[in-house]
Each structure stands twice: as C-alpha cells, then as structure tokens.
Write the structure tokens for this entry.
Amino acid sequence: MDQQNLRTPTPHTAITRQTRHALTALTALTPGRRHVLQAAAEEYLSQVDRRRLPLGYDLPITLDHSNRADAYRMRRGETFARMLGIACQPSDADLPNTARAVLATITAPVDRLTARAATTGQPGVVALLHILGATDSDPDLDEALRRARTDRTAGAR
C-alpha cells in the first residue's frame, strides 16, 4: 500500500472501533463544542496531510509516525482526541482517518444544503427553508422547492 492511500481514506476503508466510538461521542456534543472539535481536527489534519509545516520547522517531518506525533502534540490532535474520549498514542495511525470521518459528519448537513441549492437553482429558498427548520430529509422541503420553482416560472410568463 502506498503512502497516499494511508493518508487519504477511500470509500472502502473499514471503519475502526476508534472511529465508531468517535462518531458516537460526537452526537453528545453541543454545537459550540462541535465547532471547537472541528477546528481542532482541521488543524491536526493540516499538518498530517502536509498542507502546513510543523510549528517551528522550515521543512516537513518526513517520517509519518513522527509527523503524526508532532501534530498530535502541537496542532491540537490531543484536544481532538480528548474531546471525544479517544485513548490513543500520539503517533496513532488510525487517528487521522477518525478525524476525517468526524469532519465529514460535522460538515455533511452543510454539504447537503449546498448541493440542494445548486441542483434546484433556488439557493435563497433552500436557505430560508433551512432557517425555518425544514431538514434536508423533509419531504415538505421538496414540495416547497417545487412550488417556489413553479411560482417563479409562472411569474416570468
């Protein structure tokens, strides 16, 4: 397995016990704590994925386990792990994939709304319905979007 596959999870990557635990613990967090957790995971992954240099270094750390350990200590990886109750070593090879899974879960509602706004061509209506409390899985959201689209095309004639 090459190094890129270790850093980038594929859809076929098995979910580890650590990731299942983290996703379960995520459901108990308040929106404010989720925001802090998201920032910590993004900062941790920025060094693990080599988008940022380690603090105080002019060059990246070439050994993956040393890079993960440094990111854990210096780029809030420890904060991420503690907030979710994950007991792990600083160089844990599963922690980056767990952080990616948690980030994907946190950003999923926003991604769905963005996709819905793009596909319907009604970003304002999608935003308004979201503010009013309609969820992406709400069948009334589809009906409201159909009505808005019909009203808009009827008004243009």
User: Anything to note?
Assistant: The radius of gyration is 20 Å.
